[in-house]
Amino acid sequence: MNVSDQNTLGLMTYSLGETSKRFIICQQNDLFIAQESLFQNATPTRFYHHPADTFVFIIKGDIYLQQTTQQNAHLTEKETVLKTHQGIWLAARTINNITLLTPTVELCLIRLSSTKQIEENDVFQKVSSGTVELIPGRNHIKTWPLWQGASGSIALELYPPHFKETLYYQKNATQYLLPLNGVAFISNGKKPPETCPTFGKVIIKQERRAVLNPSKESITLLSVMTAQQSKGRILVLTKPN
After folding, report:
1. 7 found inside a domain
2. How far apart are CA 23 and CA 60, in angstroms?
3. How many CB atoms neighbour CB 11 within 10 A?
4. CA distance 81 to 128
5. pLDDT confidence tier of residue 6, bands split at 50, 70 and 90
6. What 3-state DSSP class applies to 7?
7. Residues 111 and 163 both lie in one domain
8. By three-state DSSP, how is residue 131 classified?
9. Inside any domain, residue 13
10. Structure pTM?
């Protein structure tokens, strides 16, 4: 993540110690997205204590995570290692400390509308494309649902080479798309396709979009979607040229 990238313009930026930075990408009632670019020599450790359940996704690098939970005056400690493209829910009001295991770490913090997101079976459970079942999606897109609940969903989506998605919009949901490898293009059907920014793109409800992958290699995107009603995805009919 290049902090001087033009895609950082307009983002709320906070210093975490010399070169380490935090970027607020989306801050609304039903969706909060932030990214942190951490450097081991500047920020070897980080502390998190959120009032709401927060999903942490590792974009790049490895971290060691320690979590402390207090129940009835008893402290419970858990620990794990998170690697690139792995995620985990940090339960509300738990005390979490991460230690960087690589010179740089890039991570994404995600919160959805309600405070309670995770069930007992999901507490402190790592998820990735290797731990969840692949779902063949629309138009040959491969999807790994990292999490799905009443307030939204988090998934990895793989787009095949030379792919052009049918134009559509979400009737009620906001979507966040983050490229994890390669270069993705997004079209609204009116203007020439634009490169999806390094920090991802927030697409509001009823905004037309189509993902394009003109390259010879597959690309993977992290997709976060707020709650949607049934039949929320609406295809856009276009006139032939």
Report:
1. no
2. 16
3. 16
4. 13
5. very low
6. helix
7. no
8. coil
9. no
10. 0.89
Q: Rounded CA gap, 234 and 110, in Å?
A: 25
Give the Cα separation of 178 and 28 in Å (integer).
18
Q: Which amino acid is at 150?
A: A
Query: Please, are residues 66 and 78 in contact by the beta-carbon 8 Å criterion?
Result: yes
- Residue 8's identity, in one-letter code, is T
Mean pLDDT taken over the chain: 89
The whole domain housing 196 covers 135-235
Residues facing residue 71 across a β-bridge: 74
Asked whether residue 123 falls in the same domain as residue 25, the answer is yes
Q: Which of 76, 111, 127 is a domain's end point?
A: 127
6 part of a folded domain:
no
Task: List, for residues 198-227, the tens digit of each pLDDT value.
Answer: 999 999 999 999 999 999 999 999 999 998
Both 139 and 219 in one domain: the answer is yes
To which residue do tokens 């359940």 refer? 53
Contact criterion met (CB below 8 Å) for 97 and 46: yes
User: How many domains would you assign to the chain?
Assistant: 2
The structure tokens listed for 9 are: 């313009």
Q: Is residue 184 within 8 Å of 159, Cβ to Cβ?
A: yes
Token readout for 207 is 């905004």
In a domain, 12, yes or no: no
Token digits of residue 231: 């039949």
3-state secondary structure of 224: strand
Q: Of 127, 154, 173, which marks where a domain is finished?
A: 127
